[in-house]
Structure to design on (366 residues):
């Protein structure tokens, strides 16, 4: 049982739990206790240190901004106004609080507020569906479109939208990059002929890709029922992020061991069999390295693209909170930052697991 758990943890990239598992099983207590301390306790200490530095920095910035507001009141309106401002800040009144880096406690409060907001919006949606169920049933019988909920999405809804967009963009990137990479990898002439194209387009900013995609989509797609912002977003994400997969696929195919190629010749495999039975399996480690980079890049550029395309998602949420300027907006932006980082980490782990499942090399690729 212990060995199965350890093997599973290694497989999903959580091998640092191994000493703790062995310690709980009573195996080599002294050694595993030391390893557990090094692998787990030190990271906990680093988290506590991070929170302490964050709290200290937040407090310093709060006091600095508060003093600046008081001095501004004194300069503009005199000592009495400055005293009123100081009393207002001390009382905790929302309207006069310094708008600066929020503390960990404020961020946690914003996180709970976002969850409450999600529950409230979900309840509104459920009530709307209940109220319109009979009407929509009649509209459906008549062949008419149902009445849909058009209220604002919650933070959790926007997370789901961003994940859907990034996977659509990632799939588009893979469908474009892998076939082209295979063709270029098989032909040194094509590889050298089109290398300039890759080198020029690979560093292009997501803003430029977004504008280019916008020009094309608004001309080609005229159906008002289609979500143009989603289409623009995922295509832009795919075009921005596909280059690592394209380069790695081309490199993987072009560097397949010559012994494998010779074996395929001996077996008289046709082109399709040679690609799918020999070249691709041998190239999978490099291809999946490219796919992991592509997914990471896709998630990073998605936030900027959603912001610019005004597409619902985490990017739009961050921008709206920034423009909102409410007292808890900064805290909500920090919550979004941690969510974005956490999802990025989980996507990386997911790709790592898939890579280990489909490649013949079962070594730890983390």
């Amino acid at each position: 049982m212990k060995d199965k758990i350890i093997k599973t943890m290694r497989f999903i990239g959580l091998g640092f739990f191994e000493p703790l598992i062995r310690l709980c099983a009573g195996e080599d207590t002294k050694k595993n206790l030391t390893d557990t301390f090094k692998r787990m306790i030190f990271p906990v200490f680093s988290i506590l240190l991070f929170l302490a530095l964050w709290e200290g920095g937040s407090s310093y910035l709060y006091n600095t901004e508060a003093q600046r507001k008081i001095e501004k009141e004194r300069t503009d309106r005199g000592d009495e106004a400055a005293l009123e401002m100081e009393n207002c800040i001390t009382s905790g009144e929302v309207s006069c609080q310094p708008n600066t880096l929020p503390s960990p406690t404020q961020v946690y409060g914003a996180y709970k507020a976002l969850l409450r907001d999600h529950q409230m919006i979900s309840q509104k949606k459920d009530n709307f569906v209940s109220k319109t169920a009979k009407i929509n049933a009649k509209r459906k019988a008549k062949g008419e479109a149902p009445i849909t909920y058009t209220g604002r999405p919650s933070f959790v809804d926007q997370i789901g939208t961003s994940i859907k967009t990034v996977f659509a963009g990632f799939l588009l990137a893979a469908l474009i990059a892998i076939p082209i990479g295979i063709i270029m990898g098989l032909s040194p002439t094509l590889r050298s002929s089109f290398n300039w194209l890759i080198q020029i387009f690979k560093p292009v900013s997501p803003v430029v890709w977004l504008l280019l995609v916008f020009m094309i989509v608004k001309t080609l797609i005229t159906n008002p029922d289609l979500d143009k912002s989603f289409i623009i977003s995922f295509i832009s994400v795919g075009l921005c992020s596909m280059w690592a997969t394209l380069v790695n696929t081309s490199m993987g195919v072009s560097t397949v061991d010559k012994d494998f190629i010779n074996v395929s010749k001996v077996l008289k495999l046709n082109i399709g069999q040679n690609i799918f039975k020999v070249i691709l399996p041998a190239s999978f480690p490099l291809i999946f390295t490219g796919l992991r980079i592509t997914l990471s890049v896709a998630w990073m550029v998605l936030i900027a693209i959603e912001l610019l395309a005004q597409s619902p998602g985490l990017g739009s949420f961050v921008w709206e909170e920034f423009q909102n300027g409410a007292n808890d907006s900064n805290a909500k932006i920090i919550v979004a930052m941690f969510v974005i980082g956490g999802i990025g980490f989980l996507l990386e782990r997911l790709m790592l697991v898939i890579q280990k499942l489909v490649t013949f090399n079962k070594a730890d690729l983390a």
Remarks:
- The chain has 14 helices and no strands.
- Residues 362-366 have pLDDT under 50 and may be disordered.
- Residues 223 and 290 are 35 Å apart (CA to CA).
